[in-house]
Amino acid sequence: MTYSALAVLAVVAVVVVDLVVYRTRLVTRRVFWVAYVIVLFFQLLMNGVLTGLDVVTYDPSVIWGLRIAYAPVEDLLFGFAMVTLTLASWAAVNRRANTARRRGFDTRTRRSSTR
Question: For 110, which of 44, 57, 61, 84 is 20 to 30 Å away at the CA?
Answer without folding.
Answer: 84
